[in-house]
Amino acid sequence: MKVDSSGIDLADLKAELRARYGIDASVMTFVPKGETSYGYRVDAGGASYFIRILPEAEGARLEGVYGALAQLRDGCGLKEATPPLHGFNGSLTFRLAGHVVAVFTYLGEDIPWDRPGHAITSQELSKVASAIVRLQACRGVDLGRLKRETFAYPFRPGIEKAISWAKSNQSPRDMVEAEVRELVIAGCEEVLDLLQRFETLGEALAAKGNALVPSHSDPNLANMIFGPDGSLHLIDWDELGLGPPEHDLWIQPGARLAETLSLTASTAVCRASMSTYSTSTATIGLFRRSRPIPSASSSKSGHRTRSRAPSPSYATTCRCAGMRSTGM
């Protein structure tokens, strides 16, 4: 379980919340979630807030991302978007002790990833599909400063470093390191082959020059909260950017991908305004190979099963009201 090791002085944090937002925190509780961030639930005057703390180096980028997110909510009516609150000075973040801090309205704890079996109903999945299509259809807001998908694989240097270490003459420090080295050596040729195939596919997709759309980039089951009334809130928009439509579809686990594609194709927004919208099974496969995805078969220890590219049968689920699916 994640522990509170941010080093933030909670008295200082409370003082900043009071000065910057008028939030007089009566109770502050650490929330053990987040990969590179730390979180606290704050109760103050009958209201609740979620405080998110990230490395200070992310500050300038996140201010821009959160500003774009606010535009998507207010300019495009994307009610599922959850930008942080503005401080008294108009800023969406502030710095504190080597960190950047953002303050959000507390949205509850009904997160599909935390449910038994990571369960999500078809009705809830339909809401996710609708939100994704409306996000991708959003026009008329300034998103030009957001990062753009290049289809590049950012982890090649780390992979090559690990293989070089495994093949070195350096003596292992213990049995565990020796076993890891053997595993890396045994699988290195397959890994390098997969890496080359990934990069070749990425180059081919980049060369097509297809239009990019606004993308959450990580709408997995841990980044969804459903309110008591069934409303959907998408959280953790740190990687908001411009990418292909598939960037927000690949995350769906197993057979739910086909269901999501079908629901996406039947969305009224898609029929009304995105008749040229298309999805590519090859692109979905590219994103699935680039990182692990949550799945119902993941172990309770947090280890995730190896992801697979979707089968060609998924292509037929997108054919609806002018939507088309392509092999590439």
What report would you give on this structure?
The model is unreliable at 268-277 and 292-328 (pLDDT under 50). With 328 residues, the protein is of the alpha+beta class. It has three domains: 1-106, 2-Layer Sandwich (Phosphorylase Kinase, domain 1), CATH 3.30.200; 109-149 and 212-328, Transferase(Phosphotransferase), domain 1 (Orthogonal Bundle), CATH 1.10.510; 156-207, no CATH class. Strands 1-2-3-5-4 form a five-stranded antiparallel beta sheet, covered by helices on one side. The protein is globular and about 60 Å long. The protein contains eight helices and twelve strands. It has helices at 10-21, 59-76, 122-136, 156-167, 175-208, 256-266, 268-273, 281-290; strands at 27-31, 38-44, 47-55, 94-96, 99-105, 147-148, 213-215, 224-226, 232-234, 241-243, 278-280, 324-326. Strand 2 (38-44) and strand 3 form a beta hairpin. The relative contact order is 0.12.
How many domains make up the 3D coordinates? Answer: 3
| Secondary-structure element order, N to C | HEEEHEEHEHHEEEEHHEHE
Main β-sheet description:
5 strands, antiparallel
Could you give the order of strands across the largest sheet?
Answer: 1-2-3-5-4
CATH class of the largest domain: Mainly Alpha
Mean pLDDT: 81
Report strand %.
15-25%
| CATH topology description of the largest domain | Transferase(Phosphotransferase), domain 1
The tally of strands reads 12
Number of alpha- plus pi-helical segments: 8
Structural class: alpha+beta
Radius of gyration from the alpha-carbon trace, in angstroms: 21 Å
The CATH architecture of the largest domain is: Orthogonal Bundle
Q: Which stretches are low in confidence, meaning pLDDT under 50 for 5 or more residues running?
A: 268-277, 292-328
Span of the ends, CA to CA: 40 Å
Question: Tell me, what's the shape?
Answer: globular
Query: Percentage of helical residues?
Result: 25-40%
